[in-house]
Every structure is written in structure tokens, then in C-alpha cells.
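Lab notebook: predicted structure, single chain.

Context: the supervisor wants predicted structures on file for every construct in the current expression panel, including those that have not yet been purified. This is the next one on the list. No modifications to the sequence; it matches the entry in the shared construct table.
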Amino acid sequence: MKVNYQERIEATVTELKIIIQRQRTITNRQKVQALYLLKSGSSQSITEVAERLGVHRITVQRWLKQYSNGGLSELLKLRHSTGRPRVIPQEVIAGLSTKIGEETCEFKSYKEIVSWVEENYQVSVKYQTLHKQLHYRMKAKLKVPKCLSNKKDELAEREFKKD
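Prediction complete. Output recorded below exactly as produced.
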């Protein structure tokens, strides 16, 4: 069954031209261009529109379905993918930042921090993941005192500090 897209598309050809010029993203411009090609009659089928725009036929069909369901506003809505969730929950990161920010921070190694996270938050986090979070993202450094030599002369140190 052949569908008459010129009747289904409510906007006029001149309106569609103006909307095409206002679009900032390429995908939105292609979506409106598909409507323009069908409304103006320069393309008769979805396959022809898809070939002209360089997209797949199913993509054009999906765009037309979005347009028929919600109009131009639904068609031009930007959708962001959520991506993979972080391994370390936000509450753990907040707890770590407060714990490391304290002056009486008792952590001497990242392994101690891994065990502390497992004890307090019941979240198993790999050493490497926790190190990346603390060192690179939070820019935190473990404050470990330097080892003191047994042979060090305290009298010589005091004289050195006076000078």
C-alpha cells in the first residue's frame, strides 16, 4: 500500500526550509530534510530519501514514525545515552573524599582503602579502579611520613634548621 506523505506532513515546504536552516546538529537537519524531500515531491519513496541522505531505509521510517507520533518537537528532541554506570557509587566517593580530607587520615596504602570501602559500604572495588578514582579523578595523595634514619644526628639537624 502506497502512503501519501505529502498529506501526512503538516508543515509547508517553506516552513521546512526555514527549519532546516535553523538546525545545529547534522542528524536533526537530516530528519527535517527527509520531511522536506517527501513533502516537496522530489522523492517519492522512503528508499529514495534514504539514498539521498546517506542513511538506511529503516532509519527514515523510524524518523517518520517519530514525526507521526509527536510532530516536529518529538522528531527533533535530543536524546542522550546514559552509558555504563560507575563502579564506585556516588555515596562511596563522597565518603572517601571526606575521609581523605581529614587531618587524621589513617590510610597508608590503597589496599587499606579498598578494605575500608568493603567494610563500610559493602562494595567490592578493585585496587586499580580505586587508585584511578583517588589519584587521577580526585587528585588525592596518601600522606605517608618519610622513614627516618636511625643514624640521624638530631643535634646536627637542629643546627641545620637554625641556619
